[in-house]
Structure formats: structure tokens, C-alpha cells
Amino acid sequence: MTVNPSGQGAPGASARMGTMVRRYLGVGAALVVLILVLSLTQDNFLRYSNIMNILRTNAVLFVVAVGLTFVIVSQGLDLSVGSMVALGGVFLASMLEAGVPAWPAILLTIMACTFLGALINGGLIAYGGLNFFVVTLGMLQLLRGAALVLSNGVTKSTIAHEPVQWLGDGFVAGFPMPVVIAILVGIVGYVVMRWTRFGRSVYAVGGNEVAARLSGVNVKAVRFSVYAIAALTAGIAAVMLTGRLTSSQPVSGALGLELSAAAAVLLGGASFAGGSGTIAGTAIGVLFLGILANGITLAGVPSYWQGIATGVVLVAAIALDRFRSR
């Protein structure tokens, strides 16, 4: 059996193009309409500073969503990524407070998040045979509680550590560093999903696990790996968010991040049924959510309406996913 990146048999070029057009047309058209409306109604929307602000403030969301794309394409879901970001931020701030140099602390934070996500989420789901919803929902609470215990519920400042601030809110060649990191993560994710054997295996497992196993794919290893990747990107996002906020936020820093990331992935054409979704589509989904939130802010609407808007979009994305499946 030949498996292509869609998780199905190899279709012709016209079929692949048709699938891509159907996948992106809806959210792409909605994004264009949203941009046009905001351009006509908000004078500040198209300013360079505002565009950079949209990209910078949504870089963390995109990095998390890249990892979550692998999980959802493989027919899974990780509800713990937001809590992983919160715990990673507290862990980083705690090491800095203890005198660990910034760059080793950053590396250790990313490694610790990856190891924790792989060991618990990946291990229990892939090799323990437990339901991904139960495991990651439990991890959501466990990691959030661990962040509170490690920090004693107190925000820890990182403002004295320049490398952390640079990664979270600095610039390189006049371009925001968080955006640079997000682009690099997106490129790596795209290459892995589109051009590697592992990426094709992720699509195959999500599209048809039995067929993938019969084709020689190590299904357990793939499932283990996608949760490790989600934890890895959560660790990177933890460093970025901590640098942007100049502190760890054990309670509110990454609250709801997992739902926003899932909404972005689903808006971008992925399906809870597995086997479909791309990094490019996820980028479109993140842009839609980011521009929507920015438009709400520019219109002077209270910020708490952003949560309502994100919830509405998430429900709409799930409904669209069900409609596409049918």
C-alpha cells in the first residue's frame, strides 16, 4: 500500500489540488473578508506597527499549534499543552532564581517539558493504551497544580535575564524575535510533515491505523512521538511567553492556550477524525484568531469578549469539521 501525506492512496494531481482548495477555501475567504472589514473600519489596522503586533502576540500560539497539528493529524488531542507552557515558565524562572545561567536554563526547560510530555502523555497513550482525552485532561490539572506548587502561587520575575527577554520580546535585524522563532518552528514542522517518512506515517496513522500497521508503520512509536513533539513546542512556547511577560505566570499565563491552539488547527483544515491537516493551514487558523482578537481590541470592545469570540470560533470549527466529515 502506498501512503501519501493525506493518509490515503496516491491520488492524481487534480484530486490533490481539489482537496487543498476545499480545505483552505472557507477559512481563507473568511480571513480575507475579516481583513477587508477591519481595513475599512479601523484606520490603524494596516499600520506596520499593528501588523507586527499581531504577529508578535500570536507567535506563542502558533508554536503551540504546530505541535498540536501533529497530534490532531494522528487522530489524537493534547489538552495539557497550555498547562505545560505554564509549568515550563515557572520551571525556567525557578532555575534563573536559583542562579542557573540563562541559556542552560532555557535548554533544560525545553528538555524537561519534552521529557515530561513524552513520558506521561506519549507513554500512557501509545504504550499504556489509555484514552488520549482522559490522559491529557488529567495532565492539564496535574501540570497546572505542579506549577502552583513549584511557584507557591507567586509570580517570579525574569526581567534581569536578558537572553530570556530577547527570545520573548527582542528583535533580530529589526524583526521581532518571537516571530522569527515561530517561522523557524513552522518551517521545520512543515518539512517534517510534508517531506519525511515520519510525517507520512503520522498521516497514515490518523487516516487508517489498521492499514498503517499492515503497511509496516510502527503505530505506537508514531503516537508516542507526536505527544513528545507537542511537549517540545510547548517548552519553546514557555520560554517565549516567559520572556514576553518578563515573569512566570502559574495561574493565568497560558490559560486557555490549548483551546485556542486546537481552534486554529481545526480552522486550518485538520480534522478530529485524523489524517488531514497541514502546518500552512494551521498558520491561516492562527492568523484568523489573531486578527479577530486585534480587531476586537481596535474597536474598543472589552478584552473579555475575545474569549467569547474564540469559543464561538472553536464551536464553529468543530461543526465545520463534522460537516466536512459527512
Report on this structure.
The chain has a domain at 48-254. The protein is built from 14 helices and two strands. α8 crosses α9. The chain is globular, with a radius of gyration of 19 Å. It has a two-stranded antiparallel ribbon with strand order 1-2. It has helices at 13-41, 48-57, 59-73, 81-97, 102-127, 132-151, 162-169, 177-195, 197-207, 209-214, 219-245, 257-267, 279-298, 305-325, and strands at 171-172, 175-176.
Question: Which key features would you list for this structure?
Answer:
14 helices, 1% strand, 326 residues, two-stranded antiparallel sheet, 74% helix, mainly alpha
- Counting DSSP H or I runs of 4 or more residues, the number of helices is 14
Largest sheet: 2 strands, antiparallel
Report Rg: 19 Å
Class per helix and strand makeup: mainly alpha
Order of helices and strands: HHHHHHHEEHHHHHHH
Give the distance, in angstroms, between the N- and C-terminal Cα atoms.
25 Å
> Could you tell me the mean pLDDT?
86
Tell how many strands the DSSP assignment holds.
2
Q: How do the strands line up in the largest sheet?
A: 1-2
Task: Give the uncertain stretches in residue-range form.
Answer: 1-18
Which of globular, elongated, flat, extended, rod-shaped describes the shape?
globular
Strand content: under 5%
Helix content: over 70%
Subcellular location: Cell membrane
GO cellular component, one term: plasma membrane
Keywords: Cell membrane, Membrane, Transmembrane, Transmembrane helix
Organism: Aquibium carbonis
